[in-house]
Amino acid sequence: MKKLYMVSLGPGDYELITIKALKALQNCDAICVPTKSADNSFTRSMTFKIVEKLMKEYAFEKDIIPVYAPMNFKQEDWQKQVDIIEDSFKKYDNLSFVTLGDSAVYSTVYYLLDIIKEQHKEIYEKSEVIPGVTSFSHASAKVKKPLCVGDSSFLIRPLHKSKVPFTTVYMRPRIGMSTDRIKEKNDIYTFENLNYKGETILDYKKEKVDKYMTLFIDFYDRNE
Ligand SMILES: C[S@@+](CC[C@H](N)C(=O)[O-])C[C@H]1O[C@@H](n2cnc3c(N)ncnc32)[C@H](O)[C@@H]1O
After folding, report:
1. Which class in CATH covers the domain with range 3-135?
2. At what angle do helices 19-27 and 46-57 cross, to 10 degrees?
3. Which among 9, 18, 135 is the best mutation to test ligand 1's pocket, defined by most ligand atoms within 8 Å of the CB?
4. Is residue 10 in contact with ligand 1, taking CB distance under 6 Å?
5. Where does the record place the Tetrapyrrole methylase domain (predicted)?
């Protein structure tokens, strides 16, 4: 019964971790913590500081597994990280891998999950991604300015490159409206009543909106 939790830690303030993330850390056998130091030390690791603080504050202790994670965006580096996780499952049944902010936003988590899906299907199928507070949600709260309200929208753009594929999130539909105006480009999903009665997740665009609590995500094309 191996289980891998991909745990989002939030934007650096340990109090901005979710209860679900905290429970995953408390319930796992060991925590995989990325470090940019080749000697596997954690002196510069913000993730380690958060985990350490949580263990102290909530009185639990877990083995810490350093995962060397240079920011080179190389397949071989992600492969080595997956190998460490895979190897750790020989000793532990439940592992957490931690990431800053929310795992959905520019995180290593999905590079690793892509490899795990390919090479260790049984671990992939038992894995769970736990979302978190993003750096920009936190930044918005700090200055008390919304990211979008009323008829506005907001964009997240990488500064290092100008032309990039993008994901679009469609929110605030009217009940009964047609979704014709959504010209899906990539890989669209419909999410209804998430965490409420009647939660539905469809891997296509519903033609008509039945519930106010509906959002559509047209995920970017990962092969572009
Ligand atoms: C690799 S991305 C990770 C984003 C993260 N997963 C999130 O949900 O915010 C790192 C970028 O996020 C932004 N970022 C993350 N933490 C931040 C912080 N504490 N203060 C300011 N910007 C931050 C910076 O733009 C940084 O270059």
Report:
1. alpha beta
2. 80
3. 135
4. no
5. 3-160
| Residue 202 burial (CB count, 10 A) | 12
Contact present, 131 and 104 (Cβ < 8 Å): yes
Name the token pair of 28.
Answer: 């796992």
In the chain, domain spans: 3-135, 157-224
Question: Distance between CA 19 and CA 24 in Å, rounded?
Answer: 9
Nearest to residue 106, comparing CAs of 73, 144, 152? 73
pLDDT digits (tens, 9 = 90+) for 61-114: 999 999 999 988 899 999 999 999 999 999 999 999 999 999 999 999 999 999
- For residue 27, which of 114, 90, 76, 94 has the smallest C-alpha distance? 94
Q: Write out the two tokens for 140.
A: 């918005």
